[in-house]
Design a protein that fits this description.
The protein is an alpha/beta fold and 258 residues long. It has helices spanning 16-29, 44-48, 60-64, 94-98, 107-113, 132-140, 158-171, 191-203, 217-221, 229-232, 237-255; strands at 3-7, 34-38, 75-76, 82-85, 121-125, 143-149, 177-186, 208-214. The chain is built from eleven helices and eight strands. An eight-stranded mixed sheet has the order 3-4-2-5-1-6-7-8, sandwiched between helices.
């Protein structure tokens, strides 16, 4: 069975989607079978992996709300080992539509169970909010990866997320574990980034990934071309960092620490 990793932080702009796109691509390049699930109505993960907008295309909304088989929604990408379940603006109203559904917290988990055996990793890009969609992502996951931007208010909202994870473990998913906290948008030229890194490493002792994602122009450019950084500019610092993160996660799995 594959491992499902929810990439979550209700604070926007911390690098969730960038991480979903580029970590999945780096894992796929390591000959690992990966499925990315976009659960954000903005669909940035979908477009960042090269799937242009198509009003006729089925999305995760059609499976979660309209009971479309998940296998009918999966898209190919430019990388052989990387598949995508797209999102679109239909998902905007899904939170309201899900309120009346029975066992609504488990909808995504049951869908992913249909295809779990086909992939080594399933990466779920969650919305920037603690809503029923994010709850579904966390209930479906074995692990949660938490990106935190290296800025002054880095810890803002993380305490709320950790409280939410504790409640989810108690009520819905007792096996949910934190895979790691990923420091993003690190600027080695500033004292602030270094200070935030030091503070977070002390605060979350043993839970911070060794890999740090830098601020990188090429990394920021890649989504506009519908490509992960590894195919857009493999020699960039952004590509190097996500390859390093993929290796760190694969080594975690080999050690059997999960």
């Amino acid at each position: 069975m594959g491992k499902t990793i929810a990439i979550a932080n209700q604070k926007g702009g911390v690098g969730k989607t960038t991480t979903a796109i580029n970590l999945s691509a780096a894992l796929a390049m390591a000959d690992v079978k990966v499925l990315v699930v976009d659960t954000d109505a903005q669909g940035n993960c979908t477009s960042g992996l090269g799937a242009s907008k198509d009003p006729l295309r089925k999305s995760i909304y059609h499976s979660m709300i309209l009971k479309e088989p998940l296998a009918q929604v999966i898209l190919e990408t430019d990388l052989d080992n990387l598949k995508l379940i797209p999102s679109d603006k239909s998902l905007t109203g899904a939170a309201i539509e899900m309120i009346e559904l029975p066992e609504r917290e488990f909808i995504l988990k049951r869908l992913l169970d249909q295809v779990n055996g086909q992939f080594d990793f399933i990466l779920v890009d969650s919305p920037p909010a603690l809503n029923i969609l994010t709850l579904n992502c966390l209930v479906a996951a074995n692990y949660v990866l938490i990106p935190i931007q290296c800025e002054y208010f880095a810890l803002e909202g993380v305490t709320d997320l950790l409280d939410t994870l504790t409640r989810i473990k108690k009520s819905f998913n007792p096996d949910l574990a934190i895979l790691g906290i990923l420091l993003t948008m690190f600027d080695e030229r500033t004292n602030l980034s270094s200070q935030v890194r030091e503070d977070l490493t002390g605060y979350f002792e043993g839970q911070i990934f060794k890999t740090v994602i830098p601020r990188n122009v090429r990394l920021a450019e890649a989504p506009s071309f519908g490509k992960p950084i590894i195919t857009y500019d493999i020699r960039s610092k952004g590509a190097e960092s996500y390859i390093s993160l993929a290796k760190e996660i694969l080594n975690h799995e080999k050690k059997g620490t999960g």
